[in-house]
From TrEMBL:
SUPFAM superfamilies: ATPase domain of HSP90 chaperone/DNA topoisomerase II/histidine kinase, GAF domain-like, Homodimeric domain of signal transducing histidine kinase. This is histidine kinase. It comes from Bradyrhizobium betae. Coiled coil: none annotated. It comes from the Bacteria. Keywords: ATP-binding, Kinase, Nucleotide-binding, Phosphoprotein, Transferase, Two-component regulatory system. Its EC number is 2.7.13.3. GO terms for molecular function: ATP binding; phosphorelay sensor kinase activity. It catalyses: ATP + protein L-histidine = ADP + protein N-phospho-L-histidine. Residues 215-430 form the Histidine kinase domain. InterPro entries: GAF, GAF-like_dom_sf, HATPase_C_sf, HATPase_dom, His_kinase_dom, HisK_dim/P_dom, HisK_dim/P_sf, Sig_transdc_His_kin-like_C.
Amino acid sequence: MNESIHGERTASELQDRVTELVEQQTAISEVLRAIANSPHDMQPIFDAILDSATRLCRADLGVLRLSEESGFRRVALRGDRLLVSRAGSSFPVLAEKGSLPSRFTTSRLATHIPDFTALLEGDHPDDHWITAVNVGVRTGLTVPLLKDNEIVGIISLVRKQVQPFTDQQISLFTDFAAQATIVLESTRRERQYREAQMALAHANRVATMGELMASITHEVKQPIAAARNNARAALNFMDQNPLDLGEAREALGCVVDDADRAGDILDRIRDHIKKVPARKDAVAIDDAISEVIALTRAEAANNSVSVRTQFGEGLPRVQGDRVQLQQVMLNLIVNAIQSMRDVEDGNRELHISTVAIEPEGVRVEVQDTGPGLNPESLPRLFEPFYTTKPEGMGMGLSICRSIIEAHGGRLWATGCEPRGALFQFTIPAD
Ligand code: ADP
């Protein structure tokens, strides 16, 4: 008799455990799905973590805070609408050290408060507890998110009725929080790494340009100075009385030679750049472009630019140097983002698309909603040193065109209606 009761219990316990595990698995899968669907933005991931945690433990409200220098910053607040709005306005976004959320982390363990109202019964109830009760918090459970024994954040779950969490729910929540921390931290780290890469790519570009400029300046300065001296000499000969036309002509001839020399130096530098052999790999252009978009994510977000992509079906691989092609994309994207900085009506869209073209190849389009290209600048865009930016060098588009032409393709720009610019390039297939 006893055995059969015992046996039945075990079976139903096992059933409960299976249900719990399935729920926990579903909860973490939802977080992973959010990560896969949101390559650029962390917010949907924070929200998915909280939605899953509140559902898993049947809570009414969830709060996720991440650790920073001065305390814990609230990055997501989800659940019962009224509670969300009250908690949002009653608790500061940054919970400083010593405040209620940060006090929950001292033990590094889950903190369960079955009944908040009971905490108000002493003579000197704490202000933080009073606020929580006024907001409508009755039962609370907080778990620190630990990474290598460091607290990287906290998740709190709240119920609006006094209804303590069960031991099972507490352990379920603790396990979920541990898994969510791993996912959250590796995603954060990977994204920080991408941002650092972008900053590096920028710095590299500027440094290379700076060096190039310095050497061009150095080499070209000399014939220009000589030309100036010879021109001045020619003027002096012309001022002489009687006029010495022979000497003046000779000096002007030297000016022409100096100018030719400056031109030759520039041609030599250009030939030298062209001679650097480009790698010829079979490049999946969509992947290469996606990487650059990921690199420029922060730049776009900081300038409130939304990025849309539309990659063509069944694109052939193109033949070329993946890094150089990415450099072209980086330039076009950064230019597009910069062009939209002063757009005032808030419509800042960057649209990047690829299409297969005949004969075998791919066309890439980068379109923005910036001020566009005026008729005077259009023919000059690809000239070296043409820039309208105070800090610009005007080398970007000229280098982009050299790269694309070295790949056997074409790069051109057109204005768009009602506004914006469209840069397009073609690349032959592998
Ligand atoms: P830089 O960015 O240093 O100015 P570039 O060669 O990349 O050099 O660009 C040259 C010029 O072309 C820019 O200064 C700007 O006037 C113009 N330009 C480039 N991209 C755009 C764009 N998307 N919209 C409007 N103007 C652009």
